[in-house]
Amino acid sequence: MKIIIAGAYAIGTHLAKLLSRNNEDITLIDSNTDRLSKISSDYDLLTLEGSPSSIHTLKEAGVTNTDLFISVTPDESLNISSCLLAKALGARKTVAKVDNPEYVEKESQEFFAKLGIDKLIYPEMLAAVDINNGLKMSWVRQRWDVHDGALVMLGIKLRETCEILNEPLKNISGPNDPYHVVAIKRGGETIIPGGNDELKLYDLAYFMTTKNYIPYVRKIVGKEHYVDVKNVIMMGGGRTAVRAIKKMPDYMDCKVIEMNNERCEELNELLDDKVLVINGDGRDLALLNEEGIKNTQAFVALTGNAETNILACLTAKRMGVRKTVAMVENIDYVSMAEGLDIGTIINKKAIAASYIYQMMLDADVMNIRFLMTANADVAEFIAKEDSKVTKKPVKDLGLPTGVTIGGLVRNGEGILVSGSTRIEAGDSVMVFCHNINMKKLEKYFN
Questions:
Q1: Which helix (H) or strand (E) segment is 233 a member of?
Q2: Cα(first)–Cα(last) distance of the chain, in Å?
Q3: Is residue 300 within 8 Å of 233, Cβ to Cβ?
Q4: C-alpha angle 420-163-343 in degrees, rounded to nearest 5
Q5: Dihedral sign computed on CA atoms, order 276, 279, 282, 286
Q6: In sequence order, what are the beta bridge partners of 84?
Q7: Is pLDDT of 161 > 60?
Q8: Are the beta carbons of 3 and 61 closer than 8 angstroms?
Q9: Strand 298-301, strand 231-235: pairing
Q10: Can you give the pLDDT at residue 354?
Q11: Distance in angstroms (rounded) separating the CA atoms of residues 53 and 412
Q12: Residue 63 neighbours by CB under 8 Å, 6+ apart
């Protein structure tokens, strides 16, 4: 597949690294030589200095026979215009990063599709969804709902209260149990577990279950004592914070601490009257105490500085806050933040890259997420008529090492998969992968 990425910034470089794992034909366009040189020496891709709004540059990059054109520069107008040009010059699919929430509404997406932009990505909106999913369940690091909760993936840090430690999974997670453990992050190692693997103290374990059995999973992992989040303190009043607050459930009360006085005035205009905006520093212990940190169930740090967010979350934890969320845009800091037991980690570029990544797959893929902390991918494939996965039970499919099927959705019902399960055409199948080229899985579902 031939892919052109415009913009060697955070999302573009991360996406290029992600796609280069699959040995695709990738060209990265940027007007700045220094930005291009930082990535070209480490990854197998071509770089081209120039503007993505230049017809000459686009043609030189080979846009006329490109399968996927992605524009993710910081300039929304440039992204839109370059996608329109790329489509007119022959690109099969186009993706543009935008900053206007109005553009990602369904009617607007349909309008842009008619113009020639197949997909619009608003990273702050995607991050806001992840933040709120984390806040709704204070005992979960990460939650992902498939088909409105027919299947649910839960990333959970295991503590001393967990009831299922040090037992082979075949004894505690059999075909008749209402959950499967589909991935384990242990220290710096990611494990796609088999029946003889065990859960250990401080593992970050990924469970696949159905919505009805979430309380059961909560019990066996020993998280029933975690209180639900009702009061939230948010540090940083940027666009991600605004989108998260607007999507926050009505039963949650939120205070925003923002250092910039002018931005505080803007926030008062943008947000509901029930949201209290405070001009100050979220690392100020006296201010946190004054604003009731001891009666707060969640602290969310969304400033543009990863170090500030990590330190603020550590401070909040030491002051008794159970649930913390940190925006960590520097990928190099993600493992450090995980090691410090920060809580939920949000990285906008990784979230956006995951959504774009699915467009390069030929199989019918509905969703794909990159689990940063586990260095694994989870994708929702649709099994086609007469495809390989429909021919045999799961245990006889010969799936590559590092791959497991966690569950499927059939006629709207979530079903956990065991070795004897037979996948049918039209099933939505959840596949977990570690250190595997996801393109290798397409032959099973096409």
A1: strand 231-235
A2: 17
A3: yes
A4: 95
A5: negative
A6: none
A7: yes
A8: no
A9: parallel
A10: 73
A11: 44
A12: 4, 69, 86, 89, 90, 91
